[in-house]
Structures are given as C-alpha cells and as structure tokens.
Write a structure and sequence with these properties.
Blueprint: H1 6-36, H2 43-63, H3 74-91, E1 93-95, E2 98-104, E3 107-109, H4 111-130, H5 136-155, H6 160-177, H7 181-200, H8 203-213, H9 224-236, H10 261-294, H11 298-322, H12 340-356, H13 359-363, H14 385-410
Antiparallel strand pairs: 1-2, 2-3
Helix pairs in contact: 1-2, 1-10, 1-12, 2-12, 3-4, 3-5, 4-5, 4-6, 4-11, 4-12, 5-6, 6-7, 6-11, 9-10, 10-11, 11-12
C-alpha cells in the first residue's frame, strides 16, 4: 500500500485544524450575545457542528471517488447550479434584504456556494479538452458567457462578493492552463470595470466602497463595520485579550460570527493568532499548488488550481476586508465562519483535491484526449501506470523480432 503523499497529509491536517478552530471561534463569537439575549448559547455551535460532521463525511467520500468521473457530468452540474441560482431569486428566503438561501426544512442552502465548485469543474474539463483561449474572442465563448450568466444571477441576489470569488476561481484555472497574460489581463480589466459600474449604480455598494476609502468619515453609518473591526483588531495587541474574553462581538461588531470572525480572532488571540491563521492558509495553498503542478492529468491539474483558488482566494478577500485593505464584500472565511453551505462545499472540494493528490494522479496522464492535432484527430490516450509501459516495451520487442525474421527470410 502506497504511503499518503506529504501534500495529502498536510491538506488533511490544515483542513481539520481549521474546522476545529472554526467551531471554537463560532462558539466564542456567539455564546455571549446569545446568553445576553437569554437564548441557547450553544445553538450556533450545534448547527455548525452538524454541518462540519456532514462536510467531513463528504470529504472522506470524495477523497475515495475518482475525480475523473466528474468530467463527464460537468455540463449537468453547471446547468443545475445555474437553475438553482435562478430559483433562489424566486423562492429564496430573504435575510437582511438579500435572497441568497433556499430553505429545506430545518436547513438552509446557498446555491451560489455550489456554483463555485460546479464552475471550477466545468472550466477545468472544458480547458483540458480545448486548450487555453488565445484571444478575447475565444475567451468570450463559451467561458465568458457562462461567467457572465453566473455573475448576473449572483449580483441580483445581491451578492457581489461571491461574484468576485467566482472570477478569482476562473482566473486561476485560466492562468494555470496557459492563457496568454495579455489576454487574461485585458479580460480581468474589463470585468473590473463592470464591477465598478455595479458598485456605482447601487447606492449601498457605493456607500460601502467610499467608506472603505475613509471609514472614519462616517463611523456610525457606512463605515461602522470597518471601524469596529479595526478597533477589535487593535484591541488584541500581540497576544490578544484571551479566548472568549473579547467584548467587540457583544452587539458592537455586526456579523461577528460570519464574515467578520477574523476581527474576533484578532481581538481574542492577537497578532499571533491572526498570523497563525494566515500561515495555515499559506500551507494549504502550498500543498494544493504542489498537487496541481505534480498532476500529469490536464483536467486534474486545472481542477486542483480551481479548488485552491476557491479556498485561499476567499480567505485572502476576507482577510483583506477585515484588515481594511479592501472593501467589505460579505465573503466568509473558509472553514472558520459560521455557515453550513460554505463549510460543506469547502470540505467537499478538499475531498476532490485529496483524490487528485493520490499517488495515481502523480504518474497518470489523461485517460481522455485533451489536445487535438492540426488534422482534427485527438491524440491517443497515454496508458496509465507501469503496466502500460510494460505493454509498450513488449510490443516493440515483438515488432523487432518480426522484422529480424523478415530480413532472414529475404536473405
């Protein structure tokens, strides 16, 4: 039995460590406000714990599921994700003025979280079959059209942060696929311009953007959340005030248990805690990119890069927003923030990444044609494993012996 590669062990260790740490911080961020409101202090912890158990079970299952079997179902998965993102605008539950969740009995589901993974799988399959787009025209169809459809539906919820995360995932897959940098930079610039237009024509987004530039100009209004996050981070100092001892989370910092949980970590665990958190995501990115670079299968390589961007891209956006380096977008901190859909999809994605990191992925090439010759014929699939090499050598030996016999017969 082959030993598990170092990357797999590091991914498992970091992921489970972040999930366990997230449960602790969710309890710390929610127990005190719940106690003051005379409700169950462990209600959020219980719900998040159930989602964590379900997500870990899916992670284990997907780590044993051959990721190549995702390739033929990629179009179906992305079509289902599009329909769900459309359905949430009609039947979704409205929370804080946004329709992002579909209620399924006692649970809620956020379709845009599934859309991230579905799009990553589809783009990886498409690019491994067709090759990287070389021009904006090639990039626009069908990738640009599909991206535009997803982003329009997600922004209509409204959820500009998830739209940004989807763009980050797509850019990562295109980059590792070999898309020319000028083409990618031009496309990214066009998307950024459209994003600025979406911000400008929506009053609350415009107020949030300008509050990022100067949050202290309106500390009791648009800049309130950013100012409170800064106060919490600054109050922690190098070592923090102690786990569970923070006060900013008690009716001072809005959404302290979701997208602003980094501020709670900064206050209670200080600079050391935030630095350790950043180091954990850096270790995840290192292991995940090693998996992507080592994988010989074009589909697996692109999918691994997309999953790393799904996790670490969102972490960078969240950390930058809480630290005041970027506007607030509502992106949760992967594995840490409260939220069942985000946690389950992130763990499911890690399971796929673990399967790619398996020993077979390091030596195997694509079992399906991924590039096409100039005459339109696909390349023959390369046999996997040592058995294929032995068969090739045996075939060469047979041809050599047959050739020597024909030469002897002619002489």
């Amino acid at each position: 039995m082959n030993r598990q590669p170092l990357e797999s062990r590091l991914l498992v260790l970091v992921t489970l460590g972040l999930v366990a740490f997230g449960l602790v911080m969710v309890y710390s961020a929610t127990s005190a406000p719940a106690a003051l409101a005379k409700t169950d202090p462990m209600s959020y912890l219980k719900k998040q714990g159930i989602y964590a158990l379900f997500g870990v079970a899916l992670m284990i299952a997907m780590s044993r599921f051959d990721y190549r079997r995702l390739r033929p179902i990629a179009p179906t998965a992305v079509a289902v994700a599009l329909l769900l993102c459309l359905a949430v605008l009609v039947v979704g539950t409205r929370v804080n003025g946004a329709r992002r969740w579909i209620t399924l009995g006692p649970a809620t589901f956020q379709p845009s979280e599934l859309a991230k993974l579905a799009l990553a799988v589809w783009v990886a399959a498409h690019l491994s079959r067709r090759g990287p787009p070389r021009t904006l025209k090639e990039l626009a169809r069908p990738i640009g059209l599909l991206l535009g459809g997803f982003c329009l539906l997600v922004v209509a919820e409204p959820d500009l942060g998830t739209a940004i995360a989807i763009v980050v995932i797509l850019v990562a897959v295109l980059l590792i696929s070999g898309t020319p940098i000028p083409t990618l930079a031009t496309a990214t610039g066009l998307i950024a311009a459209l994003g600025l237009l979406a911000i400008w024509f929506e009053p609350y987004r415009r107020a949030r953007f300008f509050s990022f530039l100067d949050p202290w100009k309106d500390p009791q209004g648009a800049g309130f959340q950013t100012v409170q996050a800064m106060i919490a981070m600054g109050s922690g100092g190098p070592l923090g005030v102690g786990l569970g001892q923070g006060v900013t989370k008690i009716n001072y910092l809005p959404e302290a248990h979701t997208d602003m949980i980094t501020a709670v970590i900064g206050e209670e665990l200080g600079l050391v805690g935030v630095a350790a958190l950043i180091a954990a995501y850096a270790a995840f990115a290192y292991a995940g990119l090693r998996v992507a670079l080592a994988c010989k299968d074009p589909f697996g390589k692109r999918l691994a890069a997309g999953i790393v961007a799904l996790v670490c891209g969102q972490a960078v956006i969240n950390l930058a927003a809480v630290l005041g380096l970027a506007p607030l977008t509502g992106i949760p901190l992967p594995f840490i923030s409260y939220g069942g859909s985000s946690l389950v999809v992130a763990l499911l994605s890690v399971g796929v990444l673990l399967n790619i990191a398996g020993s077979h992925a390091g030596t195997a090439r694509a079992s399906l044609p991924d590039r096409r010759r100039g005459n339109g014929r696909p390349r023959a699939a390369v046999a996997r494993g040592g058995g294929g090499a032995r068969q090739a050598r045996r075939a060469r030996d047979v041809r050599r012996v047959a050739g020597s016999r024909r030469g002897a017969a002619r002489s």
